[in-house]
Predict the 3D structure of the following.
Amino acid sequence: MFGSTKVKLDSDLVAKVKRYSDIAGYSSPEEFITHALEKELAKLEGADSEEEIKKRLRGLGYIS
C-alpha cells in the first residue's frame, strides 16, 4: 500500500461500524471497512469502460 488516507465519517456511522465490526469478529473497524470496500469494488471490476462503471454504479444505487 502507498500509505494511509484519512476519511471523515459521521459519528453515527462510526458507532455502527465499531458495533458491527465487533459483532462480526473483525480485528478492528478498519479491517471491517476495508472488507466492505473491497466487496463493493469487486462489483465494479471487469467493467470495460467508464460508461460500464457508471451503469454498474447506477444499478447499485450509488449514482442516479
